[in-house]
Specification:
3% of the residues lie in helices and 48% in strands. The chain is mostly beta strands and 127 residues long.
Length: 127
């Protein structure tokens, strides 16, 4: 059974950077599944940010974030990362790490299709 634990969130000034980490524990599901990041602002639905298929390394990003955010995985450390650059106040949200044994073509960035979730880490970007 896989467990996820996010870290790296915090408060940052606009234009700054943060690097979120998602440590995984348990079975190495990521060798054939899908891992990614979601964000959720207060009063809004959870939205997909970026996803990676560990089997082939392919990635997908939300159009609004592509070019500023980068998802990656360190298999040796069983850790997923989200590098966040040029942060804007509108990026403020709770960020969640998620994983599923199904490949990313199946999950399609839909939160309800991810079986395993972390508790989230808050990112706050001030002007």
């Amino acid at each position: 059974q896989v467990q996820l634990m996010e870290s790296g969130g915090g408060s940052v000034q606009a234009g700054g950077s943060l690097r979120l980490s998602c440590a995984t524990y348990g079975n190495a599901f990521y060798v054939s599944g899908c891992m990614g990041w979601f964000l959720q602002a207060p009063g809004k639905e959870r939205e997909g940010v970026a996803f990676i298929d560990p089997a082939d390394g392919s990635t997908n990003y939300a159009d609004a974030l592509k070019g500023r955010f980068t998802i990656s995985q360190d298999n040796a450390k069983n850790t997923l990362y989200l590098q966040m650059n040029s942060l804007r106040p509108e990026d403020t949200a709770m960020y969640y790490c998620a994983a599923d044994r199904q490949n990313c073509l199946y999950t399609r960035g839909v939160s309800s299709k991810f079986a395993t979730w972390g508790q989230g880490t808050q990112v706050t970007v001030s002007s």
